[in-house]
Amino acid sequence: MPPGEVLLNAAHHSNCGTSGALKKQTLTKRIESFVNWATREALTHGLPDQTT
């Protein structure tokens, strides 16, 4: 990560302003969406022991 940058910098993502890190609400929504997607994928592929 370049000096002066923050992890999950808002400048690299849409819908979160122009500076700083992603807002808590946006990050929470993205994490929830990822968990739901990963769980669906695991179940679709018959891998219930790999759900999140």
Please describe the structure with a list of short key phrases separated by commas or semicolons:
52 residues; mainly alpha; elongated
Give a summary of the structure in a few sentences.
This protein is mainly α.
What is the global morphology?
Answer: elongated
Share of residues in strands: under 5%
Largest sheet: none
Mean pLDDT: 80
Strand-pairing-aware structural class: mainly alpha
How far apart are the termini? 28 Å
Query: How many β-strands, per DSSP?
Result: 0
**Fraction of residues in H or I helices:** 40-55%
Question: What's the helix-strand series?
Answer: H
Rg value: 15 Å
| Unreliable stretches | none
Number of helix segments? 1
Q: How would you characterize this protein structure?
A:
The chain is an all-alpha fold and 52 residues long. It is built from one helix and no strands. It has a domain of 30 residues. The longest helix has 21 residues. It is elongated. The mean pLDDT is 80.
Helix-strand layout with pairing:
Elements: H1 24-44
